[in-house]
Amino acid sequence: MSALDTLITDAAPIPFLDLVEPHRAREEEFVAAFRRALRSAAFVGGPEVEGFEREFAAYVGTQHAIGVANGTDSLRFIFLSLGIKPGDEVITASHTFIATSEAISQAGGRPVFVDIDPITMTLDPAAVAAAIGPRTVGIVPVHLYGQTADMDPLLALAAKHHLWIVEDAAQAHGARYRGRSAGTMGVAGSFSFYPGKNLGSVGEGGAVTTNDPRVLEGVRRLREHGQREKYVHVSEGYNGRLHAIQAAVLRIKLQDLDAATAGRQRVARWYQEALGDIGELSLPQVASWAEHVWHLYVVRTPVREKLRRVLTAARIGAGLHYPVPLHRQEAYAHLGYAEGALPITERTAAELLSLPMFPTLSEDQVGRVVQVVRAFFGR
Ligand SMILES: Cc1ncc(COP(=O)(O)O)c(C=O)c1O
User: Fold this and answer.
1) Of 113, 149, 189, 344, which is least packed with CB atoms within 10 Å of its CB?
2) How far is ligand 1, taken at its centre, from the CA of residue 379, in Å?
3) Residue 6, SS3?
4) Rounded to whole angstroms, how far apart are CA atoms 268 and 293?
5) Which regions of 94-195 does DSSP assign to beta strands (E)?
6) Distance of CA 16 to the CA centre of its chain
7) Given the DSSP bridges, would you call strands 164-168 and 352-355 parallel, antiparallel or unpaired?
8) Beta carbons of 222 and 208 less than 8 angstroms apart
9) Sheet containing 64-68: order of strands
10) pLDDT tens, position by position, for the chain (379 residues)?
11) Where are the active-site residues found (predicted)?
């Protein structure tokens, strides 16, 4: 029996993501928040939502945060507030979750996908520059896996061509770019509080961060059926409000976010130290400008499928973020991107693999993941 077989046989499961353990310490506070909501009958909006909006804006460092139902509504409401018109083009990454581009299309725009930087896997500013045309109205950098895009060149391009920048910060709560917080650098930032996110609710939630009065007014109106004040609908809108119970949970979890981020950073350090010498495995790199909050720990290897099978056999959870780039999805066939159109994105998609990453992952658990990965590569 090989060393690898032994490791697999002895396996105790390690989840890709543990959403039970991180909630244990504050369970009574979550239950008390639920009881408060039941007894005050404040379920949607109300003081918990307003309190969370104030606290999240202060955490991120914007004048305003507006709670919404999820991180897709937050993007869609920002784009609609900015007045996207049919045919307007918005440049973004193909290497992201479909919510980014879906929101552009649903607001009436047309996503223009460009390639990524091979180190950070975020928008390549040179590719963005090459894609700017007469119909371009905005750029949406996605701060992927917990690391921001290279914002200075993007901000310079936006200023030069009179474009707006909306930051998709769904995976980057608390991440920094040269000291500046994700969600503060564009006209607006969009956050998701899906349970697995760095700041996760116990259902769905999202927020827009902004200093811009047009975005503030627009998002508040759109989340509430176009209502400016009760019974006054100045436009159609959506049912896109944040629930009070989610806001109450988020207020509690926001207090622990920096500690949770430190936990993620510790896990990332363990992986980096233990896997750095394997030539066939590329580890995630932290750009010189970045304070990385490690939403995901994504490695790359040409033998991704084999490694994934071995991890699965060893009962170690692994994910793919994202195996089919958006420009090659059937949903975007009408945009006409051929295979090979975005070569770095396509190679990355074929090689990436997300290893277990969450704040309470123990040194022993990381050690076992490392042992299996090392044994797979014959180390
Ligand atoms: C990069 C990115 N953008 C947007 C979203 C959408 O957020 P939500 O699932 O809350 O709608 C997500 C998460 O799912 C995401 O990862």
Assistant:
1) 344
2) 37
3) helix
4) 9
5) 110-114, 136-140, 164-168, 176-177, 180-181, 188-192
6) 16
7) unpaired
8) no
9) 64-68, 206-210, 188-192, 164-168, 136-140, 89-93, 110-114
10) 577 777 776 678 999 999 999 899 999 999 999 999 999 998 998 999 999 999 999 999 999 999 999 999 999 999 999 999 999 999 999 999 999 999 999 999 999 999 999 999 999 999 999 999 999 999 999 999 999 999 999 999 999 999 999 999 999 999 999 999 999 999 999 999 999 999 999 999 999 999 999 999 999 999 999 999 999 999 999 999 999 999 999 999 999 999 999 999 999 999 999 999 999 999 999 999 999 999 999 999 999 999 999 999 999 999 999 999 999 999 999 999 999 999 999 999 999 999 999 999 999 999 999 999 999 999 9
11) 197 (proton acceptor)
Distance CA 270, CA 121 (A): 21
Quote the CA–CA distance of 378 and 376 in Å, as a whole number.
Answer: 5
Residue from 68, 72, 166 to probe ligand 1 pocket by mutation (most atoms less than 8 Å from CB): 72
**Catalytic positions:** 197
Which tokens in the block code for residue 74? 């937050």
Is residue 119 classed exposed, middle or buried when 0-12, 13-18 and 19+ CB atoms within 10 A define those classes?
middle
CB count within 10 Å of CB 308 equals: 17
Domains identified in the chain and CATH numbers: 3-11+256-376 (3.90.1150.10), 24-255 (3.40.640.10)
The residue type of 147 is: Q
Residues within 6 Å of ligand 1 by CB: 70-72, 96-97, 99-100, 142, 168, 170-171, 192, 194, 206
Tokens of 333: 């066939």
Q: Can you read off the two tokens belonging to residue 325? A: 């780039």
CA distance 242 to 46: 10
Residue 239 bridge partners (DSSP): 224
Alpha carbon of residue 131 to chain centroid: 24
Q: Which of 97, 204, 246, 322 has most ligand 1 atoms within 8 Å of CB, for mutation?
A: 97
For ligand 1, the distance from its centroid to the CA atom of residue 374, given in whole angstroms, is: 32
